[in-house]
Model the fold of this input.
Amino acid sequence: MILVLRALGVGDLATAVPALRGLRAAFPDRTLALAAPVWLEPLVDLVGGVDRLVPTDGLEGVEWPGPAPHWAVNLHGRGPRSHRLLQAAGPERLCAFHNEEADHTDGPPWSADEHEVDRWCRLLDWYDVPSDPTDLSLRRPSPHRVPVGVTVVHPGAKIAAKRWSPGRFAAVARELGRSGHRVVVTGSAAERDLAEQVAHRAGLPGTAVLAGRLDLSGLAAVVAHSRLVVSADTGVAHLATAYGIPSVVLFGPVRPEHWGPPVDRPWHRALWAAALAESAPDTGSELPELDPEVPDSVPVEGDSERFRPHPTLAAIGIEQVLAAVDEVDHVRPVRTAGATSRAVARDRHAIAT
Done:
């Protein structure tokens, strides 16, 4: 068995897809087990090639089933806790970044300044396992019972600092609706109030609010068959990348060079205030701090505190988002022959297993 640890979220799993595919190709006859949260199972099925999901939510209280793995691969972090968790499984070999605190002196050094996809491909390369960092696609689920051809506006994010103003999201959604987009607002069940507020302020009908009404497979299906996605730097943005759906992603405290969509695909646009400031006329000033008096710094229903976006997100304007939408909406994504053949091979493996 090859045991892989990635006990995180949607975007984290999506950025680990090339590494998982590399491991599948390197060990075709061994069981590939992924330690990840059980709620990610629908997305794991869309990756293909993973034989077993080991329910793992975080790094506490995990018991590994069955015999010791041939390899344990840490795609979770730099250690030491994640290293030790895998070492407890008794693998013949631990594939992980160098960490002396965990008594793991093998592996490459950790680098904070690299894209998340490249990080795990570089780790595997150290252990002579090739992988393709461009192989990010997921199997496209059936559009049964979900709207198709819609423009997805996703105002939420698990990390509060990554959220743009709901007032600005509503303004974007309103303008998109006026220009002919059929807009839906997605989110988790916990984000339904936020989604309803955005839809109401945008003048959208209640049926446009899909937050809390979709499970993960349903959300993936909506994105996979959508026209366009506008979101914060969160899991939905990675689904858009995986399905080649035009997207505009708003970045704040995290650099797009570390978590953004591939820069060689013109149908994705990452907006980041520092980059926008570099392309704007020099005013001699720093990125603006959030003014608590601006109209869109408003409370979200159900929240007791005023919503205050991260300063780098507050510096991204509505017109900049709409201009980026117009640019990517006119670019037709292209699926390469290589990507198509890899998808077919994954489907065949999934059927065989």
In short: The radius of gyration is 21 Å. The beta strands are 2-5, 32-36, 52-55, 71-74, 93-95, 151-154, 183-185, 228-232, 247-251, 268-272. The first strand starts at residue 2 and ends at 5.
